[in-house]
Amino acid sequence: MVIVQEVWHLRSGYDGRAQDVMQELDDLVGPAAHEHPGWCGHARFLQSTGPSGEVVMLYPWRSRVLHEELAAREEPLLAEFNRNYCAAPREIRYFAELAVDVEHEHHDAEQVSDPVRTRTLAGRVALVTGASRGIGRAIALALAADGADVAVNVRAAETAAADAVAQIRALGRRAESFQADVTEAAAAEPLVASVIERMGRLDILVNNVGDFHFKPLDAMEPTEWERILNSNLSSVFYLTRAALPAMRAGGFGRIVNLGLSPVEIVRGAPNIAAYAVAKTGVLVLTRSLAAEQAPYGITVNTVSPGLIDNGHLPPTQKVWMEKRVPMGRLGRSEEVAAAVAFLVSPPASYISGANLAVGGGWDWDNRPVDHDHDVRKLFGAGGGA
After folding, report:
1. pLDDT classification of 112: cutoffs 50, 70, 90
2. What is the pLDDT of residues 364-381, one digit of tens each?
3. Tally of CA atoms within 13 A in the half-sphere of 123 that contains its CB
4. Which of 25, 40, 192, 243 could lock 102 by a disulfide, CB 3.0 to 4.6 Å apart?
5. CATH architecture of 125-379
6. pLDDT per position as a tens digit, 66-92
7. Does the domain spanning 2-102 belong to CATH 3.40.50.11810?
8. Cα–Cα distance between 170 and 71 in angstroms, integer?
9. Nearest-5° angle of CA 356, CA 360, CA 366?
């Protein structure tokens, strides 16, 4: 174990607000740090503040090598924070390398026996749709951490795509952004062809794109219905159809589609009919493809998130959602990404047609049935998310 000291140099005017600024830092990088194999169960904490705006933080980490890897991952995330608050880059120092380990609730000792994450996907190229933010970005980063080169698909958000690409490259992997609206049938084949041309191959496809829309069926316009089905279901068909020839030619393919945790058993819920229909269709499509493509070395699976914290939920909406999860908390994007990374890894080579729910036990069977009027107050009377 090693003791890590971080020294931050705040700009003039912020030294009196060090506690608030450091809390913003923890909100930014804390969740990923707590899931890192090097975490010892102790978050960064404010040790002292000097008169010149120098902030010192101390905390334990499993090893210097593991912390250096974490610090490299954090640098792209810290770019805006540094511009806003810092007069100079942070300094990192290491003390007291001890031949001891620390057990905690998230990681077993076996998982950290190797100080560098195993590169089980080295040499593979993955295409992740909607990869500039949220769950899509987390998936892209998880695959890169496991050694894959990543094609980052975005519909329009060029700045966000550049940030995602920078984060992947900081992990030592190749990354390129590819702009395409995957809800359009005509976009699929050119996108796949471009990925293969620029990155040399395509081994892994993650169909992550899927707009959410919260609206009663009788208030939904036909164009809204079509948009939700195209985004969540048709896009999976378009991209998979375009990717299969290259995968079959190479005798290898891993396809993971994003679903919704309660759709394993067909049932309905108010205000999300189009979304639920589309995600149920994704599961049926996944299992059909799994049977069709098994002879060609291609596995097809679904990862179905439950209620996930996107980092931007209003407090009342977050509390409402947390009460519906047996674990008592919302999921994290990184937890969904870990499920995807497992299903494309070598240990999962005999798994196909599966639906892996990442929902903390949440199911429509155990959710309270609130009156539509009360729910719409939280989620908006007609809004897509």
Report:
1. very low
2. 555 554 544 555 555 554
3. 3
4. 40
5. 3-Layer(aba) Sandwich (3.40)
6. 888 888 888 888 888 888 888 888 999
7. no
8. 10
9. 105
